[in-house]
Amino acid sequence: MSIWAFGKAVSDWLLPPGLLVISGFAGLWLLRKRPRTGKWLLAGSFAALWALSTPMLSGSLLRSLEPAPLDLKASSPAQAIVVLGGGRYRNAPEYGRDTVSQSSLERVRFAAALHRATSAPVLTSGGAPDGGAVTEAQAMKAVLENEFNTPVQWLEGVSRNTLDQALATRRTLAPLNVKRIYLVTHAWHMQRSAEVYARAGFDVVAAPMGFKTHGDTTLLDFMPQGESMRDSYFFFHEIVGLAWYRIRFLFSN
Questions:
Q1: Which residues of 29-54 are buried (b: 16+ CB within 10 A; e: fewer)?
Q2: Which CA distances in Å does 11 have to 41, 65, 122, 173, 240?
Q3: Which of 45, 75, 129, 165 is most solvent-facing, going by the fewest CB within 10 Å?
Q4: Residues 6 or more apart from 93 whose CB is under 8 A from it?
């Protein structure tokens, strides 16, 4: 098992729903020796599982991370567009190869629109931490050029996480004196990404996309849904990632 895979496995068990599964089993184990504690732990795990699986709570959590949308008229132009990889669709049978995941496709679509609006050159960023011959950067480049008619000027295909992306992007763009960038990623991922890229020396113009919008509140907003649990996972992953990076930066100064 690679270091990346081990770290992901650990994080999956330390974040919902993995953490709730562990706490639920712990409650079952305690029922015989400490029934009161076991019952409270089981009830709390179930309640948290339900709440974090509802669109009402998970959507509110993600929206708390989201910045304002990009206003091109109110911001000074940037020198480049950096679009962060959001995973790959491995061994896609309909294409006969690795290609972009749904998240990456959403990001490159907005990067293409931003390129049409600004004419800024594009850099795609993302390695292949889980193996494979095609990096996220290469998969995004192929889609941008072949499907969105958007040229990609630079590739960053060695990174395994957001911090790696920022440092590798700096190595690519610093010799070209490119400092001010449009940073494209999902709105819930922008706070951590912008902070890391700013630490790497970039003047970041946040270009978030994929906002967690919502309509009128209905009974369905309080019912458990698989997508909502995924959104809750994203929220806690960002919170833990922000804390971890800030600790690293604190001790690296």
A1: ebeeeeeeebeebbeebeebbebbbb
A2: 21, 20, 31, 31, 9
A3: 75
A4: none
Class of residue 17 by CB neighbours under 10 A (exposed 0-12, middle 13-18, buried 19+)? buried
Q: Looking at residue 253, what is its pLDDT?
A: 65
- Measured in degrees and rounded to the nearest 5, phi and psi for residue 88 equal -120, 155
Residue type at position 165: Q
Q: Name the percent of the chain in helix, strand, coil, to the closest 5.
A: 55, 15, 30
> Could you tell me the sign of the dihedral formed by the alpha carbons of 30, 34, 38, 39, in that order?
positive
| Rounded mean pLDDT for each run of 10 residues along the chain, 253 residues in total | 71 90 95 94 97 98 98 95 97 96 98 98 95 94 98 96 96 97 98 97 98 95 97 97 90 75
Q: Is 88 helix (H, G, I), strand (E, B) or coil?
A: strand
Q: Which residues pair with 99 in a beta bridge?
A: 89
C-alpha to C-alpha distance for 78 and 2, rounded to whole angstroms: 37
CA 153 to chain centre: 23
Q: Where do the DSSP E strands lie in the chain?
A: 80-84, 88-92, 97-100, 122-125, 154-156, 180-186, 203-209
In the numeric block, which tokens belong to residue 223?
Answer: 């019912």
